[in-house]
Amino acid sequence: MTAVGALPRYPAERWAPPDIDLEMLLEKLQQWQPFAGDAFLDDVTAILEDSPAEELVEYLVERMRGYSMSLVDIALTHAPQNDTTTELIAQARAVRSEEFPGDYRQAVGFLRRMASIFLELFEYLVATRCVREAS
């Protein structure tokens, strides 16, 4: 017998955790870095407007590769899935996987090509409101 105004009791299903690897998820969360748009644009500007010192070229290539991974991840998860997104992702992946040239002049050209391709992807992500425009 229930009191007047009391809600009837229904048996509740026992909660079960989702079927995912929580340790892997925690590890990925701990490794996650937010995309640093200002730092990216500073690096792109330095690369496209100046010739970086020879000792900095390899370091800048690695930074560009890191930015590329972040930009591609953002595009895959947040950008409209259309031909433009697909093409920009393909270009970024292709240049990111190319081998670093040993010659300084070729390396600077390679670095500038990377910066241009990644900048185009960044600008597209800004236009589609997937990332905020850097200040």
Describe what you observe in this structure.
By secondary structure, the protein is an all-alpha fold. The protein is 64% helix and 0% strand. The longest helix has 25 residues, at 54-78. The chain starts with 21 loop residues before the first helix and ends in an 8-residue tail after the last helix. The mean pLDDT is 88.
Write down the overall geometry: elongated
Radius of gyration, Cα only, in angstroms? Answer: 23 Å
Distance between the termini: 66 Å
Q: How many strands? A: 0
The biggest beta sheet is recorded as: none
Q: How much beta, percentage-wise?
A: under 5%
Helical content band: 55-70%
Question: How many separate helices?
Answer: 5
Low-confidence region ranges: none
Structural class, by secondary structure, is mainly alpha
- What integer is the average pLDDT? 88
Give me the strand/helix succession: HHHHH
Name its key features:
single chain; 135 residues; mainly alpha
What is the topology?
Blueprint: H1 22-31, H2 37-49, H3 54-78, H4 83-97, H5 104-127
Helix pairs in contact: 2-3, 2-5, 3-4, 3-5, 4-5
Summarize the structure.
The chain has 135 residues and is mainly α.
